Each structure stands twice: as C-alpha cells, then as structure tokens.
Amino acid sequence: xxxxxxxxxxxxxxxxxxxxxxxxxxxxxxxxxxxxxxxxxxxxxxxxxxxxxxxxxxxxxxxxxxxxxxxxxxxxxxxxxxxxxxxxxxxxxxxxxxxxxxxxxxxxxxxxxxxxxxxxxxxxxxxxxxxxxxxxxxxxxxxxxxxxxxxxxxxxxxxxxxxxxxxxxxxxxxxxxxxxxxxxxxxxxxx
Length: 191
Hints:
By secondary structure, the chain is an all-alpha fold. The chain folds into 2 domains: 32-110, Rna Polymerase Sigma Factor, Chain: A (Orthogonal Bundle); 130-190, Arc Repressor Mutant, subunit A (Orthogonal Bundle), CATH 1.10.10.10. Helices cover 66% and strands 0% of the residues. The protein is built from 7 helices and no strands. The chain has helices at residues 32-53, 57-73, 84-110, 120-138, 142-153, 158-165, 169-190. α1 runs antiparallel to α2. It is rod-shaped, with a radius of gyration of 37 Å. It starts with 31 loop residues before the first helix and ends with a helix.
C-alpha cells in the first residue's frame, strides 16, 4: 500500500465512513519545502559524494545541483519523504557516472594523435611556392592548363578529362606531358 505524505496540521482530519481500497489512495509525494530542506541540510555530504566520484569541484557542484533539479521535477514519485535523501544520493551517483562516461569518451576522441603541424616558416614557404605555381600555370597554353587543373586539382582520370574537354585520350596525355615539362622549366628557373 503506498504511503501518503503527512498532511499539514492546520487541516482538520475527517473520518470517512467508507474505507477506500489501495488503488483509490493517491500519494501526494514529497513537498517542495521538505525537498529543499533536505537538500540544504545534506548539500555538503552530497558534494562530498560527488567529489569521491569526480575529480574537479565545479563538476561536483554541477552534479549536485542537477540532482536537486531532477528530484524536484520528479518529487511526486518520492512517496515517502524519508527517502528523499536516498533519491538525491542515487541521482548524484548516476549523474557522476554520466559525467565520467562523457569524459572518457572525450579522452578517447582526443587521444588520437594530431597530425604534425607545419611551422609558420613552412606555411609561408608553401604559400610562396603555391603563388609561384599559380603564376607558372598562367603562363601555360590554355589546353595544357585545363588538362593539368582537371587531372591534378580536380582529381579526374585521364579518361574523364578527355570526356570533359571533348578531346582524345592521346591529346590529354600530350597536353599533360607538355604542360608538366613547361612547369618544370618555369619553376626550375625561379629557384
């Protein structure tokens, strides 16, 4: 049989002539005042519990406050007021577990080695080389430039380049070969 929360003393008690069945008795749940009082009285112990499970103070405080909010929103289900503290403790434990799971997942994602980053000098040098390549590409014949751009920058096969430009496969190979040779000469002369 569910336990009914205590009725305030200001309300007169009435004896009902009919006896109600267990299914007719409705539990009011924990009152907001009782929950708030329990939270205030046991805040430090709840914080200590979270501190044993987690490692930083800010997370502990967040977990304890979130536990209060969750139990507050579900207070109607806490039919026995003396179990309010147990509900708060269990919620702190569950939220701490969730926080640890998120951290572990984050560490797994971050533990992958980052690719080596180029230094600022290397980045500047690459930028200069790219600019030189763009200038050299501008000096090529139109078909040579088109073939090289489609082949190497658009990552197309020679057959796809031939279809795109409407020329034969042999022409694509010839334009590509002549274009690369011209770039070597132009880029070699600038070094």
